TrEMBL record:
Record-given protein name: Diguanylate cyclase
UniProt domain GGDEF: residue ranges: 446-602
Pfam families on file: CBS (PF00571), EAL (PF00563), GGDEF (PF00990)
InterPro entries: CBS_dom (IPR000644), CBS_dom_sf (IPR046342), Cyclic-di-GMP_PDE-like (IPR050706), EAL_dom (IPR001633), EAL_sf (IPR035919), GGDEF_dom (IPR000160), Nucleotide_cyclase (IPR029787), Rev_trsase/Diguanyl_cyclase (IPR043128)
CDD domains hit by this protein: EAL (cd01948)
Molecular-function annotations in GO: cyclic-guanylate-specific phosphodiesterase activity
Residues of the EAL domain: 13-267
Gene3D superfamilies the UniProt entry points to: 3.30.70.270, EAL domain
Length: 612
């Protein structure tokens, strides 16, 4: 039997005399559940909610852990867990559109070792609440040792066979081994908040999350970044390929049920603000997406065989649940054996096969349609995904991107980018800048800033040291902009020569100014090494001016003109901003700080300016 290992561990279960059931019922009546949303960083749409226990102190416990430890010590952990599970499910079912959402419930690994353990009750609780079995994700914390628990693996297999989902919680915080994760086949891996805290400033954490995300996608699991508390962490997690995010930056847990469960505005706004490259990738991917019709998970296996016989060009077919969410794929090769056996169709008609299509189901990497092509390619290579990648939109099946389609999409994207890139810096060129600005300026935002950068004393430097060294100075500034402006997801373009353009929205004016002046200071410090020692010692370069006379030129620097764009205006164009930026740039070049800012009003109105 598959579950004999569980019986062997009966001796490990606590033998303490159970507490009276009515006392635990009173405890559960006093506690409550708060719900925290888990959202897509690509769209801001809500995937589900984690149920978090609250008001345990009202029941006389100093902590959540103390409540569960007491239940364990008294031999009632399973009873208590089922009472709490019933309460969480019942409350969750009252949410708007609950049937579309997922419920994440923390599962204490010790439950399966209690004397009162009785499997099979969760399905009944969900049915009573009008919810499907795949609504619930049982979160197994890595903080408890799961690496050698064969009985736990067997229990998870049983939960899976019943249609429940599995999530590994707190990944990176405890005992879990890759083998355990591989054997448990989790649907979701939640990365511990320690690795998310400050990830935008910690290269080692970034590398860790990158590797875990790649591993998760390799086993067709999705990744949730826990504990996201800042915009910068949010953007970093999305850039690294995390499928979902959760944390105070998105929303704090609340015992009050939400009024809307479609999306979280703060995440949706950022997704809309930062959709530049993904929009282009989105368009390209959609044009190559294989619109392979999906089949429902309750289909008769004989009908799948007929499907493949009628569609010989299709080698795999996605399988979706009742909500259109992909579960995996079924390959034609799995059914060919039945075609060539005398009783193939009879075998497929076997009640065991008809009742459980999962024996033919194979896992496949899943990604949101707004995932960049670079990330899709990395997932494809890391997983050796011969079947391709299933793409979804707002969690629902959209189509399949196979190997051939993916390579063609990447090639087209690269071709399109090459047309719009500056050949030296590979930054968006004039066409891309105008296209981006037209879209960004057409959307009213409370805070929007455009910045023009222009080198000072570039020509004398170029004349003295040659155009190759001049190109290196331009590339230096390009790299500096990437570092100085990275935290708030600026758009950066290269107009040409030594002129650069940057745009950002949804951040404070002071934050924008600080980022711009940080870039200027970094260039001042690093460009000195491009001059010879004698010139560095002098602090200026001696060369010929435009009148061909010998002149002293200051070392190269960068002037910046920042235009504050009025909120809610949608009639402003990049040409309007360029005119005002030219005025500000003249002011900046004559100021000590080489910086000037002003609020754009209209082409004819006076422009308030300030230099710092």
């Amino acid at each position: 039997m598959a579950f004999d290992a569980e019986d062997e561990l009966i001796a490990d279960r606590p033998k303490t005399k159970p507490v009276m059931l009515r006392n635990w019922q009173q405890v559960v009546e006093k506690v409550d559940f708060a719900f925290q949303p888990i959202v897509s960083p690509h769209t801001g749409h809500i995937f589900g909610y984690e149920a978090l226990l609250r008001r345990w102190e009202d029941a006389g416990f100093p902590s959540i852990q103390a409540l569960f430890d007491t239940a364990w010590d008294t031999g009632n952990l399973h009873t208590v867990d089922m009472l709490l599970r019933a309460k969480a499910i019942k409350k969750f079912a009252r949410m708007p559109d609950a049937k579309r959402l997922k419920l994440f419930y923390n599962f204490d690994n010790r439950v399966v070792r209690t004397e009162d353990y009785q499997p099979g009750q969760t399905a009944a609780l969900l049915a009573d609440a009008g919810l499907e079995r795949d609504t619930i994700f049982l979160e197994i914390s890595e903080r408890h040792d799961i690496s050698n628990a064969d009985y736990l693996k067997d229990i998870l297999v049983r939960y899976r066979s019943q249609g429940f989902k599995i999530a590994i919680d707190d990944y990176g915080s405890g005992f879990a081994q890759l083998r355990a994760l591989y054997e448990c086949e989790p649907d979701i891996i939640k990365i511990d908040r320690f690795f998310i805290d400050g990830i935008d400033r910690d290269r080692r954490k970034e590398l860790f999350v990158t590797q875990i995300t790649a591993f998760a996608h390799m086993i067709a699991a999705q990744v949730v970044a826990e504990g996201v508390e800042t915009r910068e962490e949010f953007l970093c997690c999305r850039r690294l390929g995390c499928d979902l995010v959760q944390g105070f930056f998105i929303a704090r847990p609340s015992v009050e049920l939400p009024e809307r469960t479609d999306l979280v505005p703060v995440a949706a706004d950022i997704a809309a603000d930062t959709r530049r490259q993904s929009d282009r990738d989105d368009d390209v991917v959609r044009s190559y997406l294989l619109d392979t019709p999906a089949i429902p998970s309750d289909i008769n296996p004989v009908d799948i065989l007929t499907y493949f016989q009628q569609n010989p060009d299709i080698t795999l077919v996605p399988v979706v649940n009742h909500d259109g969410e992909p579960l995996g794929v079924v390959r034609d090769s799995e059914f060919k054996a039945f075609i060539y056996t005398p009783f193939g169709r009879e075998l497929l008609q076997n009640p065991a096969n008809r009742a459980n299509i999962k024996r033919f189901l194979r896992r496949c990497p899943i990604a949101d349609i707004r995932t960049s092509l670079s990330e899709l390619l990395e997932t494809f290579v890391a997983t050796n995904a011969l079947d391709g990648v299933i793409l979804t939109e707002n969690g629902r099946y959209l189509g399949v991107l196979d190997q051939s389609a993916l390579l063609r999409a990447v090639n087209e994207r690269n071709t399109l980018n090459a047309r719009d890139e500056n050949p030296l810096t590979r930054l968006p060129g004039n066409s891309a800048i105008y296209r981006y600005a037209a879209r960004a300026l057409s959307e009213p935002r409370k805070r929007r800033f455009a910045v023009y950068f222009d080198f000072d004393n570039f020509k004398p430097f170029n004349d003295r040291y040659g155009f190759r060294q001049g190109d290196r100075a331009i590339l230096l500034f390009k790299d500096i902009l990437g570092k100085a402006l990275s935290q708030n997801d600026w758009f950066v373009g290269h107009i040409g020569g030594d002129d650069f353009f940057a745009y950002v929205q949804s951040i404070d004016f002071e934050v924008a100014v600080e980022a711009v002046q940080r870039a200027q200071a970094m260039f001042d410090a690093q460009i000195k090494s491009f001059y010879d020692q004698e010139t560095r010692d002098l602090g200026y370069l001696i060369g010929k001016g435009r009148d061909n006379n010998v002149t002293k030129f200051d070392l190269m620097s960068v002037s910046a003109a920042l235009v504050r764009i009025p909120p809610e205006r949608t009639d402003i164009t990049l040409d309007h901003i360029s005119v005002e930026a030219a005025k500000l740039k003249a002011i900046a070049k004559n100021s000590e700080s080489r910086f000037a800012s002003g609020l754009y009003d209209s082409p004819c109105a006076p422009l308030p300016v300030s230099g710092k």
